[in-house]
Amino acid sequence: MARPSAPAHPFLKRTLAATFRERLRQFPVVALTGIRQSGKTTLVRHLLPDWDYVTLEDLDQRRFADEDPRGFLAEHPGSTIIDEFQRVPALTSYLQGVVDRTGRAGQYVLTGSQSYLLQAQVSQSLAGRVALLVLLPFSLTEAEGHTKDVETLDEHLFRGGFPAVVARGLPPGPWYSSYISTYVERDVRQLLAVRDLVQFQAFLKLVAGRVGQLVNLAALASDAGVSVPTARQWLSVLEAGHVVRRGAPWFQNARKRLVKTPKLYFADTGLLCRLLEVGSPQELSRHPQRGAVFENWVLTEILKDWHHRGEEPPVFFWRDTDGHEVDFVIQRGGHLHPVEVKAGRTVQPDFFQGIRYLGQQDESLSGGLVCYGGDNRQTCSGMAAVPWRKLSAALDGIRNAG
User: Fold this and answer.
1) Taking 70 as the threshold, does the pLDDT of residue 2 lie above it?
2) Which long-range contacts (CB under 8 A, 24 or more apart) does 253-260 make?
3) Which pLDDT band, with edges at 50, 70 and 90, does 363 fall under?
4) Which run of H or of E encompasses 328?
5) What is the dihedral of CA 248, 249, 251, 257, to 10 degrees?
6) Which of 40, 127, 211, 287 has the fewest CB atoms within 10 Å around its CB?
7) Which CATH architecture has domain 16-134?
8) 385, 370 contact by CB (below 8 A)
9) Taking Cα atoms as reference points, which of 169, 124, 125 lies closest to residue 146?
């Protein structure tokens, strides 16, 4: 059987590549999930150019796999990439038998954009046989390899990290508009049969307007003109597709007076800016939600730093009922590493106020840093103010502390 040619566009170097190769040597199946257009197919086809490739987005292939799973797998007995695998849930049971017959590592790669569906399927039928990995859009470090000019913070936030915008230079505004209608809305239609897309678009923009805030489903549903169960369903689909992520609160002792409601964030600041109707980096610099967009970016950098190394990100936020808070805390090596986010370009003493207060409440606190919108690293009372361009190095220090 002739193999389809690899994608025409050049390979985009990704941090996850090394972890992917390692897992492929260890497990019969590697499942790669992540938001649409994050580069999953490009990555695996570049790393495995001699493997067969089949996508279940193709109606004929999907029908074949659904109606005759044994026949489908007989045509692809191994060394095969199966894209959008979650389209045929029953295939996992038959795949288990195939990989068990040989017992060797590196037989199949499964990719998909609906993380909950893919993970639920493979975790049940392929337990112990599959490695689960997540690929998100470019981190700052990955994007710098494709950017000729030195960007300002607002330019970087506005552009976002999707490979099509970063590496191919497509204009962010039109591309993100197309992305929303082509992928996000299509997924919602397929999974929930949403008929009123105008109402869903309004809901999506309302979610964007609440980025970095505590989730209030009742208020969100009321503003969108839908029921609370509908709002919950729509959020679940956005989460399943990695479009939206809920930031989990940190509370070690349930008896403490801590906020236990999650926050909302988006997978990419370029997408977020489009939903906020920000038209340019200059407009973002004056936007009332610029600080929230920057906070969102810091979270996505933390997620990428861990996910792209095959690890679950141990990141939370901390807030008590009196209003004291720290934007993020990373649990590592039995310690909490607080990360405060400030979009301003000048370090102020009150930037460290939340971290100091948390240090008085929790003995497991280790150091602390502020990621800010300026250019120079500064220290204050043993805590560092790290410029946004150096966040990756600071995260490496936290990860290695474990």
Assistant:
1) no
2) 256/320, 257/320, 257/321, 257/322, 258/318, 258/319, 258/320, 258/321, 259/214, 259/319, 259/320, 259/321
3) confident
4) strand 325-332
5) -150
6) 127
7) 3-Layer(aba) Sandwich (3.40)
8) yes
9) 169
How much is the mean pLDDT over the chain? 88
Beta bridge partners of 30: 109, 131
d(CA 354, CA 199): 38
Residue with tokens 């934007």: 327
End-to-end CA distance of the chain: give it in Å, rounded: 48
d(CA 183, CA 203): 16
Residues in the chain: 402
Kindly state the tokens that stand for 310.
């095959």
**Distance between CA atoms of residues 229 and 133, nearest Å:** 30
Give the 3-state DSSP-derived string for 98-122, with helices as H, strands as E and coil as C. HHHHHCCCCCEEEEECCHHHHHHHH
Task: Report the amino acid identity of residue 79.
Answer: S
The pTM of this model reads 0.92
DSSP 87: G
- CA angle (183 as vertex; 290, 181 as ends), nearest 5: 70
Instruction: State the Cα–Cα distance between residues 34 and 143, nearest whole angstrom.
Output: 17
Q: Which ranges of 228-364 does DSSP label H, i.e. alpha helix?
A: 228-240, 269-275, 281-285, 290-307, 353-361
Residues 297, 276, 134, 141, CA torsion sign? negative
Rg, the chain, Cα only: 22
**Residues 58/88, Cβ–Cβ less than 8 Å:** no
Q: Which two tokens stand for residue 24?
A: 């492929």
Q: Report whether 31 contacts 110 (CB < 8 A).
A: yes
For residue 199, give the 3-state DSSP assignment.
Answer: helix
> Given CA atoms 358, 362, 367, 372 in this order, what sign does their dihedral have?
negative
pLDDT at 201: 87
pLDDT band at 175 (very low <50, low <70, confident <90, very high): very high
